[in-house]
Design a protein that fits this description.
The protein is mainly α. It has helices at residues 16-32, 55-68, 86-94, 100-105, 107-114, 122-125, 127-136, 150-166, 214-223, 239-251, 254-265, 271-297, 300-329; strands at 3-8, 35-40, 77-80, 142-143, 176-177. The structure holds adenosine-5'-diphosphate and tryptophan.
């Protein structure tokens, strides 16, 4: 039986990149795999100190978003990281298998170290150890993540391998990245620069958020950057125009996409029409998700129930792993 695990930090805002690049895959995987865990990585957000008044809203919104996008608590365990004490317990033990040098060399840590004014606390340095604990605690085989997380996953494998080697066991599973497609999906920013849609972009108009109003979605697409238009039949598309076509492929009907592809290829395309059509189709796609998020956010007791049930399953699985790890390490003194 293959175990699947993934999670994201509760930053409150989820955009189309998070949806198509991550959550849509989780939703598919819960049908294709028997043992799935999807969680909200709240401990991970404390590396940069969070506001205690804002954090609960973000966690609630993340939970509502997961469910609104189609995660089903009957098919997968959906939980909050800090509800599962087995994770920090494993984190402590795994830390003994992580070297200071490799943690300092980690790209995400180096990036933070370069930023001025950033406090380099030990939590930030050991971020990959906590992420490894998230995964190894369920002995997960498959972890759907984007390219940016590959190095962290590699480190999780290294820690597990060192543990297994030291104790001459194969108890910890070495996790692998998973994607349905050969090439990882990348949703582009609406600014046409070819960079990825991101919530850390300073301009909120460059991303479509799952919580955007219809008006906001239409406005953002209307303002999206295109180019001067194709200069010859069957011309190659610029990043800006390719980004719009990619979105159309995800949210519009195949006939609509084919119609605009043909217009592009014979140079009769009017980007204004494309943006209006894409805006409408985007509203039809995102609108129901947004409304569902709002509906779920208004039912905190339901969200609490789902989180409690998810945590119970996750704790049970985590406890089994911890019992095994403690036994292997000899933490079993008065048996
Ligand atoms: P952001 O870059 O907006 O801060 P995160 O780093 O929190 O997003 O990413 C959460 C998940 O969403 C990851 O699995 C990541 O690979 C995916 N993701 C984020 N942005 C995009 C994008 N533009 N296209 C595809 N996947 C994305
Ligand atoms: N580090 C991931 C991110 O920034 C989030 C994350 C934490 C995660 N723990 C994980 C992803 C375990 C997959 C598995 O996006």
């Amino acid at each position: 039986m293959q175990t699947v695990l993934s999670g994201s930090r509760p930053t409150g805002l989820f955009h189309l990149g998070n949806y198509f690049g991550a959550i849509a895959n989780y939703v598919k995987m819960q049908d294709d795999f028997d043992n799935c865990y999807f969680f909200i990585a709240d401990y991970h957000s404390f590396t940069t100190h969070t506001d205690p008044l804002v954090l609960p809203q973000h966690v609630k919104r993340a939970m509502a978003t997961y469910l609104a996008c189609g995660l089903d608590p009957n098919k997968a365990s959906v939980y909050v990281q800090s509800d599962v004490p087995e994770i920090p317990e494993l984190y402590l033990l795994l830390a003994m298998f992580a070297n200071k040098g490799e943690l300092e060399k980690c790209t995400t840590f180096k990036e933070k170290a370069r930023q001025k004014g950033q406090t380099l606390n030990a939590g930030l340095l050991t971020y990959p150890v906590l992420m490894a604990a998230d995964i190894l605690v369920h002995r997960a085989h498959k972890v759907p993540v984007g390219k940016d997380q590959m190095q962290h996953l590699e480190m999780a494998r290294n820690f597990a391998q060192r543990f297994n080697h030291h104790y001459d066991t194969d108890f910890l599973v070495l996790p692998e990245a998973f994607s349905y497609t050969e090439e990882l999906i990348k949703i582009l920013s609406l600014d046409g620069t070819g960079s990825k849609m991101s919530k850390s972009d300073n301009n909120v108009n460059n991303a479509v958020f799952l919580t955007d109003t219809d008006e906001a979605i239409l406005k953002k697409l209307k303002k999206a950057t295109a180019d001067a238009g194709p200069q010859e039949p069957n011309a190659q598309k610029s990043d800006a125009v390719q980004g719009l076509f990619n979105l159309m492929q995800l949210v519009s009907k195949p006939e609509t996409l084919a119609e605009f592809e043909a217009a592009y290829n014979d140079c009769s395309i009017r980007y204004g029409d494309l943006k209006v059509q894409l805006g409408k189709d985007m509203v039809d796609y995102v609108g129901p998700i947004r409304d569902k998020i709002a509906e779920l956010e208004s039912k905190p007791s339901y969200l609490k129930e789902v989180a409690a049930a998810g945590a119970e399953t996750a704790r049970k699985s985590g406890r089994e792993t911890l019992d095994g790890v403690r036994e292997i390490m000899g933490i079993n003194y008065f048996a």
